[in-house]
UniProtKB/TrEMBL annotation:
Protein name per its UniProtKB record: Methyltransferase type 11 domain-containing protein
Protein keywords: Methyltransferase, S-adenosyl-L-methionine, Transferase
Keyword Protein biosynthesis: no
GO biological process assignments: methylation
MF GO annotations: S-adenosylmethionine-dependent methyltransferase activity
Amino acid sequence: MEPYEYQTLFDLEESYWWFCGMRAALRQVFQDYHLGHAERLLDAGCGTGRHVELLQELSPQIAFGLDYSEHAVPFWKRKQLNRMVRGSLNTLPYQTGAFDVVISIDVIESNGIMVEEAFAEIARVTKPNGFVIVTAPAYRWLYSREHDRAVDASKRFSENELRQAIQRAGLRVRRLTHLFPSLFPLIALARLASRLPPHHPDLQPVSDIKPLPRWLNACFTWLVLKEAQGLKWLDYAWGSTLMAVAQK
């Protein structure tokens, strides 16, 4: 991910609708699968560390974070997170069976991540009967020349591709759902429109994560929070993001 995008994440992760919806979805999964008593948890590809903080809220035990980029480290210090390391999903620096729960939120699509090796490593460090929660961008046709370049993403997944990648690592997929179905038409329209000229490949790419008018962000946040509640009963058939819950 481009270095300046970490500051964007840090500035917007508390209020921006996408992050609010993702945290709500994770809370619902923890509730549905009774993961609140997990003793050791890992966020593999933690960025600024916001989801490590969430893991600490969801479970009273010990949460760890890992990210490859040196640009993430200053934000861990600002958040006073001290169980953090730099490392790659391709070779996780943890003992086999070290964690009850491993999450990896929109990381598996990154340049440099070998999907098969990364899932094998995630499975290795998960305890028997432990849980893995992974999200990834959906639909190859939603690839954005600017956003995906800015966040260093090179892959998007279909349901079958994500399911098979998880299963090849020896994990059992408990559920697979899309996220953000209500806003999917707007997201798709914006992505398709971004392909129209002009395009300036020599300029620094900027992600789609930008401040919105307060009223619009509030409306979007209300929608995605309601969708997260719906995960208690529903798997969504469409949406811009895929979420998989798997068990070792």
